[in-house]
Amino acid sequence: MYFELKENKPHGTKDDPFSTYHIENAGRSFQIPVHWHDEFEIIYVRSGFLAVSISGESYIGKTGDAFVVSPGNLHLMGSQTGTVDYYTFLFPLKYISFRTDDMLDEKLLEPLNSGHLMICPRVKDTAKELCEQLIEIYEAKKDESESKITTQVRTKIILLQFILEMWKKGFVIENDTSGRNTVEKEMVSYIQQNFTGKISLREFGEQFHLSEKYISRYFKEHFHITLSQYVTYLRLEHAKQLLQDTDIPVTDVAMQSGYQNVSYFIRSFQKAYAVSPLKYRKNNYSR
């Protein structure tokens, strides 16, 4: 299985908290494992088919479809073939707030941010034009063809138009605490806090008062990935970060990422990213 998105990282910057990620034709099957964040997210399928799961509900997105992930909701994306082109747009809702304690903030943006309201996950092709405009801004930002102030003003106008469109079409609905996936989020948090050590099915089951046999099936059914695959993903992503940000030897990278066998770590890294740890570090430094 091939993993490729950089989760557990800050999205955007203080000056520009709006982030765009573009995933195109990975060439083989992949899954972005289950995760959540406090930002609002729009997922837009530009071509191909994308499997999306949001708060336990599964969808297949096709060209022109859009999905909304409200803050705090668990979600994952993937493709059996990798032949998909899609974008994700992430931003904190305060990014489009006027911060004046007016009706927009009090009755819509703050309830969306706190989870009392949510936007229906699947909005199909109703947002296609607005998403294409966000892509246009993304390309302009890469080319630095317009000022940062101009880019932010244009972006905020489009995002407010998006929220307005969702409101007008009745996609803004009441939410309850069950939609926040409390138990599943606790499971993911537990793994994220302990992945560099040994996580056994027995200990994991005891932590959540589930049998060892059941916990394995539960995890697979809810997250579409095995517990061991998820741990491997976190370890390899952590290793990538260490290779990028430090000069420590590969042996230490392996150990700090939860691998006791360096040779196994190198094989796992090569299999996941089609490049050795040393070459990955070299390529990263050369950019």
UniProtKB/TrEMBL annotation:
Residues 185-283 form the HTH araC/xylS-type domain. Keywords: DNA-binding, Transcription, Transcription regulation. InterPro entries: AraC-bd (IPR003313), Homeodomain-like_sf (IPR009057), HTH-like (IPR037923), HTH_AraC (IPR018060), HTH_AraC-typ_CS (IPR018062), RmlC-like_jellyroll (IPR014710), Tscrpt_reg_AraC-type_HTH (IPR020449). PANTHER family: ARAC-FAMILY TRANSCRIPTIONAL REGULATOR (PTHR43280), HTH-TYPE TRANSCRIPTIONAL REGULATOR EXSA (PTHR43280:SF2). Pfam families: AraC_binding, HTH_18. It comes from the Bacteria. PROSITE patterns: HTH_ARAC_FAMILY_1, HTH_ARAC_FAMILY_2. Gene3D superfamilies: Homeodomain-like, Jelly Rolls. The keyword Transferase does not apply. It comes from Roseburia hominis (strain DSM 16839 / JCM 17582 / NCIMB 14029 / A2-183). The keyword Transcription regulation applies. This is 2-isopropylmalate synthase. One of its GO terms (molecular function) is DNA-binding transcription factor activity. SMART domains: HTH_ARAC.
